[in-house]
Amino acid sequence: MIRSFRRTGVLGVCTVAAVAAVSFAAAPVSAFADNGDGFEFTLYAKEVPAAGASESGPPPKAGDVFTLADDLYKTKGGTKVGRDGVTCAVVRVSGDQADVNCVGTFVLNGGPGGQLTAQALVTFDISNEAPAAYDVAITGGTGDFTQARGYVSTTPDGDYSRLEFHVTSR
Predict the structure, then answer these.
(1) What is the C-alpha separation between 165 and 73, in angstroms, rounded?
(2) What pTM does this model have?
(3) What is the mean pLDDT of the chain?
(4) Helix (H/G/I), strand (E/B), else coil: 58
(5) Which runs of E-coded beta strand occur in 48-96?
(6) What are 34-49's pLDDT values in tens digits?
(7) Are 164 and 46 in contact (CB under 8 A)?
(8) Which range, 4-8, 32-36, 88-92, is most confident?
């Protein structure tokens, strides 16, 4: 229960994403150029377990904070193109529902390259082992993503989270 709760908190930042879900072809990140309208691409996030992290424990309560990190790939098990880091705080728990405020950063190598910052307030069903899909707002960026806005859709995909990036410039 806690592992899926933590995992969906990414991405969610992802994690995710990310953690994120999109239906674009899984092409190399370098295949996407900024045509003035922005970027759209799909990556896959796989959580990097923290040393000593437990997959079980007590249910979350307001004030709990957790972190997670993912490696980002062009395809499941393919070439690594970046990483992310996410910090989440549980802000409300009511029955089997928990509101979690997550802030994260995606670091992408290659073209496009740079960092994307993202955040989301996500409601999770803590009794459900399978995480749900959700969107994360892109709040800014560096490098090729300077003045970035948009969103990342995150969807569970086996041991990965599928991250669909929709990035625009101001």
Answers:
(1) 13
(2) 0.77
(3) 79
(4) coil
(5) 65-73, 80-94
(6) 556 778 999 999 999 8
(7) no
(8) 88-92
Nearest C-alpha neighbor of 26 from the set 164, 149, 148: 164
Q: What is the pLDDT of residues 57-68, one digit of tens each?
A: 778 899 999 999
Distance between CA 29 and CA 42 in Å, rounded? 8
Q: How far is CA 161 from the centre of its chain?
A: 8
53 vs 36: CA distance, rounded Å: 43
Q: DSSP secondary structure string, 94-137?
A: ETTEEEEEEEEEEEE-SSS-EEEEEEEEEEEETT-SSPPPEEEE
Contact 124, 100 (CB under 8 A): yes
110-136 mean pLDDT = 86
Q: Look at residue 30 and give its three-state secondary structure.
A: helix
Tally of CA atoms within 13 A in the half-sphere of 143 that contains its CB: 12
Q: Which residue has the tokens 């997959």?
A: 55
Specify whether the CB–CB gap between 165 and 152 falls below 8 A.
Answer: yes
